[in-house]
Amino acid sequence: MPSIEASRDNWKRKAMERGRLNRNLARQNARMRLNEAASIAREKLWREERDSALEALRCERLIKPIPSDTETMIISILLIVKARISFRAVPRVLSCTGFQGWIPHFSSTINWVCRVGLASLRHMKAPKEDWIAIIDMTLDIAYKKALVILRLPLSVYLKREGAITLEDVTCAGVVVRESWKSEDVAKSLHDLLGDEPHLKAIMKDGGYDLAKGVRLWKAEAKRKDVSVISDISHEASNALKADFKDNKSFQQLTRKLKNNATKIYQSHLAYLAPPKLRAKGRFMGISRLGRWLEKIQGLIGGAGRVKKGSLAFELRRLFGGMGNLTYVAGELCKRSALLAEVMDLLKTKGLNRLTFQEAMKKIENLPKRTATRRRMEKWLRRHIQIHCRLGIGQTPLPVSTDIIESLFGTFKTFITRNPKSELNHLILAVPALCGPQSKTRIRQQLGLVSQTDFEKWKKDEIGKTGRMKRREILAGIESQRSEQKWDHLKSG
User: Mean pLDDT over residues 111-119, rounded?
Assistant: First the structure.
């Protein structure tokens, strides 16, 4: 019996050792297989990298065609009108991207863009379909101001879904003057629009000079068939202004926000600062103030104490005490939000009978006795009558001048990047930004207007700029000093 037990223990020990050995061998085999697979993968990746590097090296050794001078000009112009970069950035962008052609100077790019703009003014034909003219003036830049007229086809909303873009409009004319009166506006309209048979309406903002100038032009040219469309954004701002301008609670609210805005800008809550309140055009962006007030009131919370140091506590410390201003703030939020919905509807779809009914339903949510509701209902009824009088069926009528404001904003980014900004020949960038720009069209426009034509236009229309006068005066002073010094040396 003891021998049997010893044999059994010996067999069990040997079996356990064999099992342990087999398990170790299995683990080693698994590790070896994994290492082999990883080595194969690394070798494959290395071969792919080597092949790609050899292919890149082979491609670099190939002779690449150098762009022609015309292609360099076209690429530089497209960087301006499409990418919206500054003129001084064009040579930097071309050099950083490995451009194979010659790198032009930024002043050459300015001349090319102006030539394209001049060709657009001189050789752009009016559309053969019905269209409206959008007119507006730029802000005073230095001591000059420009009147810009855009052509917008009435079928623009039938061709696209959404708001108007710069590709949908073309520039009918640009006139630069030191001062503008209504008679000057009428004369420019007569020179630029003439007797266009397909011109159906003129759209403008609420400026007095523009309004009177359009009336004078219609009377002199006997164009009673041309309707006048008022911009909906200016009309909505004037409607809100009629209700809130003389409201003491609103004045107190804006005064409180303006005084505390400087405090919040210098604190860790600057990201919750109210929108900027401008002295002029305050009601143009009043909807942003309304939305801000609605959100801030939600953060401040209702009655009762809040935890010290919390966000609500900090906001109450800055903008608290508006309990007596809650009503006017709520009305401002409600009316501005409703008008924003109406403007969004009419700007994206235009005005026809369907959008007129939708807009009237939204306006009915305003209080009946408010000037906002009366003015907006009057504006809608007047313009739906214009739509019916034009006889264009269900074709939507554009009612917003946002496109020309967007154009001015883009032009302003160009003009303000230059030192001592003034209105000069860069105004020709305005027509260059309008319409669908392609390589073929730019090539044609560069062939239509030469550098000599551009220099002649600049001399006739712009004249001497402030910078040119400054250089002449300083050059005269330097020459006078040199003459005095020479006379002194001869006498001595």
Answer: 93
Instruction: Give 329 or 426, the one with higher predicted confidence.
Output: 426
Note every long-range contact of 101-108, with CB atoms under 8 Å and residues 24 or more positions apart, other chains counting. 101/66, 101/67, 101/68, 101/69, 101/71, 101/72, 102/69, 102/72, 104/72, 104/73, 104/76, 108/76
Give Cβ neighbours of residue 392 (< 8 Å, ≥ 6 apart).
Answer: 130, 154, 200
Dist. CA 193–CA 133, nearest whole Å: 9
Percent of the chain's residues with pLDDT above 70: 90
Q: Name residues whose C-beta falls within 8 Å of residue 437's C-beta, 6 or more positions apart in sequence.
A: 77, 78, 81, 82
SS3 string, the chain, reads: CHHHHHHHHHHHHHHHHHHHHHHHHHHHHHHHHHHHHHHHHHHHHHHHHHHHHHHHHHHHHCCCCCCCHHHHHHHHHHHHHCCCCCCCHHHHHHHHCCCCCCCCCHHHHHHHHHHHHHHHHHHCCCCCCCEEEEEEECCCECCEEEEEEEEEECCHHHHCCCCCCHHHCEEEEEEEECCCCHHHHHHHHHHHHCCCCCEEEEEECCCHHHHHHHHHHHHHHCCCCCEEEECHHHHHHHHHHHHHCCCHHHHHHHHHHHHHHHHHHCCCCHHHCCCCCCCCCHHHHHHHHHHHHHHHHHHHCCCCCCCCCCHHHHHHHHHCCCHHHHHHHHHHHHHHHHHHHHHHHHHHHCECHHHHHHHHHHHCCCCCCCHHHHHHHHHHHHHHHHHHHHCCCCCCECCCCHHHHHHHHHHHHHHCCCCCCCCCHHHHHHHHCCCCCCHHHHHHHHHHCCHHHHHHHHHHHHCCCHHHHHHHHHHHHHHHHHHHHHHHHHHC
- Provide φ and ψ at 144, rounded to 5°: -125, 160
Q: Which two tokens stand for residue 232?
A: 């909906």
**pLDDT range class, residue 228, cuts 50, 70, 90:** very high
The answer to whether residues 306 and 313 touch, using CB atoms and an 8 Å cutoff, is yes
Q: Dmax over Cα atoms in the chain, in whole Å? A: 144
pTM of the predicted protein model? 0.78
**Cα end-to-end distance, the chain, whole Å:** 143
Q: What are phi and psi of 336, to 5 degrees?
A: -65, -35
Q: How many CB atoms lie within 10 A of CB 317?
A: 12
Residue 65 burial (CB count, 10 A): 8
- pLDDT of 63 > 60? The answer is no
Residues sharing a CB contact under 8 Å with residue 76, sequence separation 6 or more, in sequence order = 90, 94, 104, 108, 109, 112
Name the token pair of 58. 């082979």
